[in-house]
Amino acid sequence: MRVDAEDILEISAHFGSLEDPRSHINRKHFLGDLMVICVCGVLSGCDGPIAIGDWAKSKAAWLQQHLELPHGIPSHDTIGRLLMALKPAAFQACFTKWVAAILQRRAQQADPTGQPAHPTQAAATPRHIAIDGKTLRRSHDRRKGLGPWHLVSAWAVECGVSLGQLATEEKSNEITAIPQLLEQVELQGSVVTIDAAGCQKEIAAKIVEGGGDYCLALKGNQGNLHAAVSDYIEQQMAADFADCEVQTLECQEKKRHGRIDPYFYHQFPAPRELPGRAEWKKLKTIGVAIRVSQRGERETYDVRYYLTSLSLDVKLFATSVRGHWAIENTLHWCLDVTFREDDSRVRERNLTNNLAWLKRFAISLLKQVQDKRSVAMRRRVCGWNEDYLAQVLFGSES
């Protein structure tokens, strides 16, 4: 694949608003060059500044052909100092613009019927945004009294794109991190799903104020409300829904070894007598998702309750509930298995945060490639083949 000056200039434009934290004294390398090297290195299998520096040296001829690099290939120390100094929020904002530009360009590559050429060619603002947290298990620093870093991520379910992340010291701080993350994400016209930790009045209000709808998992952290919702739904199911308005959907999901688990979804208008209902902004419906699992002769049930601002539409409710697990099964699983994020022993907080975002950004790019390879294989091929790397990086066909 041919990489021309316009491709490089387009990338540089995304970093135009990024403040360079480096001293003006003895500044030898362009910020845009360093950013491209970092992204390419992570796409090619690197997990830290030393690996990125070594990768850049091995690809010196290719990089010097396409980047300015007035003083040659930067050292791993230069890359590490930059990633430690960059402000994570500004760093992420630039990459978010980059991903949006790639998705927009692909959406314009339509076939003769005017339809997008690939199902991942979605609008820059997805309809379903899943929010969940993940702990970087080995990022603790006992000498400084620091526990493991916890990252809350926003994931665009339809197009497989990471929309933002926010780091906290502990998982318990997720409640305060989620509203800050929501401010970084375009919510207009989206359904936002969050697990029980994010089932808070303030978070629901923030989503509605941003122009979105919410579907929040409800558990014991909302004691009286959880009890009232579960009691109401159990009463209606016991009466075979004779005295209430309800929409029901049954579907099946194939599991390993040929096992098939049936799922049942029931959605109801929110009862007026729910405790504190008026405090939940735009609360319209409640729902339950029931999974029935057969293990030998034993049958088990997994029951989950939800508060939503969605109108009565059980198909949308079921899609939102099931789609939420994409952030766990697609993003977090890929970070653990393909990128081995939990094995990282990087302790410096800014460096950890920025490397974590580079990995999420790399997954977003790799998810957009239109071939039959797995994400792990795409990452390997990026390290082997510069033409394939350029295809992933610039969002163009080879």
Strand content: 15-25%
Mean pLDDT, to the nearest integer, reads: 86
What letter string, H or E per element, gives the SSE order? HHHHHHEEEHEHEHEEEEHHHHH
Structural class: alpha+beta
Biggest sheet record: 9 strands, mixed
Which descriptors would you attach to this protein?
alpha+beta, 14 helices, 398 residues, nine-stranded mixed beta sheet
Would you kindly provide a brief summary of this structure?
By secondary structure, the protein is an alpha+beta fold. It is built from 14 helices and 9 strands.
Lay out the secondary structure.
Elements: H1 5-14, H2 31-43, H3 49-58, H4 60-66, H5 76-85, H6 88-108, E1 128-136, E2 149-156, E3 161-168, H7 174-184, E4 191-194, H8 201-209, E5 213-218, H9 223-238, E6 247-254, E7 260-269, E8 285-295, E9 298-308, H10 314-323, H11 326-337, H12 349-367, H13 375-384, H14 386-394
Parallel strand pairs: 1-4, 4-5
Antiparallel strand pairs: 1-2, 2-3, 5-9, 6-7, 7-8, 8-9
